[in-house]
UniProtKB/TrEMBL annotation:
The keyword Plastid does not apply. Its cofactor is Co(2+). Keywords: Carbohydrate metabolism, Chitin-binding, Cobalt, Disulfide bond, Hydrolase, Metal-binding, Signal. Residues 48-243 form the NodB homology domain. Coiled coil: none annotated. It comes from Fusarium oxysporum (strain Fo5176) (Fusarium vascular wilt). This is Chitin binding protein. Residues 256-284 are annotated as: Disordered. One of its GO terms (molecular function) is hydrolase activity, acting on carbon-nitrogen (but not peptide) bonds. Residues 281-329, 336-381 form the Chitin-binding type-1 domain. The lineage of its organism: Eukaryota, Fungi, Dikarya, Ascomycota, Pezizomycotina.
Length: 381
């Protein structure tokens, strides 16, 4: 709580340091769509969806988390804090964070705000509250040219006053109804408790009648390197789909962000794709300036999990970073008979089932192999 008091005093506290970037204070904030603004949202709207969300990042582990989500073709929402955990400002070009945030967008994930420096909003004056939201917007706009309309209050702490301020700024206030408490169980011996919470909620439930808005934290080691893959396997096994919050609320992508004047519009269904430079020293990935191995000679086009270009199984297999090079690993088989992007990118050709139907089922009948057949995930007539 001492730091909470320090924030009220001067520029000596980095929470009070305005980031560089376009001022968003006077950006128009129309309230579009059917999702409420300035009100608490705890649940998804669409059965079969599990909205994976991660708070407090980006962090050292976030790149590996993105690689894991990509292997399973799973989407998530990242509630980003602008300056916390000693990581510096998210738009500082000398850090890996701008590249990682652009990659999140490129990979189809949703970006949301978790405030500038993770203060308990209910303890702040109006001016300090405003800075917590506007400073994060400025940093996002500096990186992407736009900023989010979705947020989650730190510590899940908001009240009628702060809700009204968030409504004034045009934010959807999103919480969760599935919390494995991974941040409380960050050790190999304790993470099983979080897995049990997940299993008690999800395992064996029908996607026809169930949906969840979930929370984790990407600065938590066991969450990234143990729990997340456990959840992704469960999602696939039980035929749910890992989606963003906007998707689970059935809110069009064009409503997820606000554009800064004269900046690229984020309304396209295909997210802006950053251009990554070619490696000059054999290093790759967001920790090395976003350098890519694509175009390297002698087939050394894979970017290993440790950020080296090469062509061996160590480079191209498990942990390979697909955004920064080619990879040879393929998705694991989905639940028997399921296929397509909604089922982890599973292919019927790999599971021996043949064609992937429009609805995501493997088979060899005309219904599977004819109109609507998904050629990316199986054979088609």
């Amino acid at each position: 709580m001492l730091f909470q008091r320090w924030i009220e005093y001067g520029p000596g506290c980095d929470a009070n340091v305005r980031p560089g970037g376009p001022d968003t204070t006077n950006v128009a904030r129309p309230k579009v769509g059917s999702i409420p603004y300035g009100q608490a949202i705890y649940r998804c709207n669409r059965n079969g969806d599990i909205a994976l969300t991660y708070d407090d990042g980006p962090y050292t582990y976030t790149e590996d988390l993105l690689n894991l989500l990509q292997r399973y073709n799973a989407k998530a929402t990242f509630y980003i804090t602008g300056r916390n955990l000693g990581k510096g400002a998210i738009n500082d070009p000398d850090t890996p964070w701008p590249v990682l945030i652009r990659r999140m967008v490129r990979d189809g994930h949703q970006i949301a705000s978790h405030t500038w420096s993770h203060q308990r909003l209910t303890t702040l004056s109006r001016s300090k509250f405003w800075n917590q939201m506007i400073y994060n917007e400025i940093a996002f706009a500096d990186i992407l040219g736009y900023f989010p309309t979705y947020m989650r209050p730190p510590y899940s702490a908001s009240n009628t006053t702060t809700d009204a301020w968030l409504n004034e700024l045009g934010y959807h206030i999103t919480y969760f109804n599935l919390d494995t408490e991974g941040y409380l169980h960050d050790s190999p011996n304790m993470i099983s408790t979080s897995k049990q919470i997940w299993d008690n909620t999800v395992e064996g439930r029908s996607p026809a009648t169930n949906k969840w808005l979930h929370i984790e934290h990407d600065p938590v080691y066991q969450t990234v390197y143990n729990l997340t893959e456990y959840m992704l396997r469960s999602i696939r096994r039980n035929n749910f789909t890992a989606v963003t919050v906007g998707q689970c609320l059935q809110d069009p992508r064009s409503n997820w962000y606000r554009t800064v004047s004269s900046s690229p519009s984020p309304t396209s269904t295909s997210s802006p794709s950053p251009t990554f430079p070619a490696t000059t020293n054999g290093r790759c990935g967001s920790r090395h300036g976003g350098a890519t191995c694509r175009g390297e000679p002698n087939g050394e086009t894979c970017c290993s999990q440790n950020g080296w270009c090469g062509g061996t199984s160590d480079h191209c297999g498990r942990g390979c970073q697909p955004v920064f090079g080619t990879c040879r690993d393929t998705p694991e088989p989905a639940a028997p008979g399921r296929c397509g992007a909604a089922h982890g990118g599973a292919r019927c050709t790999e599971s021996g089932w043949g064609c992937c139907s429009r609805a995501g089922w493997c088979g060899s009948t005309s219904d599977h192999c004819g109109t609507g057949c998904q050629s990316d995930f199986g054979t088609c007539n």
